C-alpha cells in the first residue's frame, strides 16, 4: 500500500477562482415574477398531458419530436423557428415560459411550421389539421373562464358520485364463510 500512497500528490492544488465577467455580473437573474403562476403552469401541463394521450396519437405523432434534416430534407431552409411537443415540454419543465400566451404561441408555431413546409395532400398536413382543431379547442377553454369553471364542476360532481359509490360498497361488506362454516350450514339445512 505504501507504493500506492507514494504515487499520490502530497498536496492538493486548488483551482484559481475565475473572475466573473462584467456582462455576467450585470445580467439580472430571472425574478420570480417573470415565471408563470401555478394556475397557468397547471393549465399548460394539462394541455400537454391531454395532447400526449393515446387517443391523439394517430395525428400528433409528427409533432412529438424535433424534425431532423434526415426526416425532412430542406426543412431548416424553410422553417427558421422549429418547434415540437417535446421542446415545449422541456421549456415548460425548465420554467422558460413567462405566460400562457408564450406557451400557446409555441403550439401555434408547430401548426404554422407544418403548413409552411408540407404540401396539402400529405399525411403530415392532414395530421396537422386534426392537431390544430384539438389545440384550438384546448386553448379556447383557457380563454373562457366560465367554461373552465363548468368543466371543473363536472369533474367534482363525477368524483363526488364515485366517492359516494365507493363508500356505499364499503358499507355493504359481505361475510366470507370458511369451508367448515359452509359445511355446518349445509348440514343444518339438510
Automatic annotation (TrEMBL):
Q: Does the keyword Coiled coil apply?
A: yes
Q: What is the lineage of its organism?
A: Eukaryota, Metazoa, Ecdysozoa, Arthropoda, Hexapoda
Q: Which residues form a coiled coil?
A: 149-176
Question: What domain of life?
Answer: Eukaryota
Alphabetic keyword roster: Bromodomain, Coiled coil
- Where is the Bromo domain positioned along the sequence? 55-125
Report if keyword Cytoplasm is assigned: no
Database matches in PANTHER family: BROMODOMAIN-CONTAINING PROTEIN BET-1-RELATED, FALZ-RELATED BROMODOMAIN-CONTAINING PROTEINS
Full protein name: Bromo domain-containing protein
The record, for InterPro entries, names: Bromo_chromatin_reader (IPR050935), Bromodomain (IPR001487), Bromodomain-like_sf (IPR036427)
Q: Offer one example of a GO biological process linked to this entry.
A: regulation of DNA-templated transcription
Can you list the GO cellular component terms from the UniProt entry?
A: chromatin; nucleus
| One Pfam family it belongs to | Bromodomain
Amino acid at each position: 500500500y505504501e507504493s500506492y500512497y507514494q504515487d499520490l500528490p502530497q498536496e492538493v492544488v486548488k483551482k484559481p477562482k475565475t473572475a466573473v465577467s462584467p456582462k455576467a455580473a450585470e445580467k439580472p437573474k430571472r425574478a420570480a415574477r417573470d415565471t408563470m403562476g401555478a394556475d397557468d403552469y397547471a393549465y399548460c401541463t394539462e394541455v400537454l398531458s391531454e395532447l400526449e394521450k393515446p387517443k391523439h396519437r394517430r395525428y400528433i405523432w409528427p409533432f412529438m419530436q424535433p424534425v431532423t434534416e434526415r426526416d425532412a430534407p430542406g426543412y431548416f431552409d424553410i422553417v427558421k423557428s422549429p418547434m415540437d411537443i417535446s421542446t415545449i415540454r422541456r421549456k415548460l419543465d425548465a420554467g422558460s415560459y413567462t405566460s400562457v400566451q408564450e406557451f400557446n404561441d409555441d403550439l401555434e408555431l408547430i401548426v404554422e411550421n407544418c403548413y409552411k413546409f408540407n404540401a396539402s395532400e400529405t399525411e403530415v398536413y392532414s395530421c396537422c389539421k386534426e392537431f390544430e382543431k384539438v389545440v384550438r379547442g384546448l386553448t379556447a377553454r383557457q380563454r373562457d373562464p366560465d367554461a373552465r369553471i363548468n368543466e371543473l364542476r363536472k369533474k367534482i360532481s363525477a368524483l363526488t358520485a364515485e366517492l359516494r359509490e365507493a363508500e356505499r360498497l364499503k358499507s355493504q361488506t359481505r361475510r366470507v364463510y370458511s369451508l367448515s362454516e359452509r359445511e355446518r350450514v349445509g348440514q343444518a339445512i339438510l
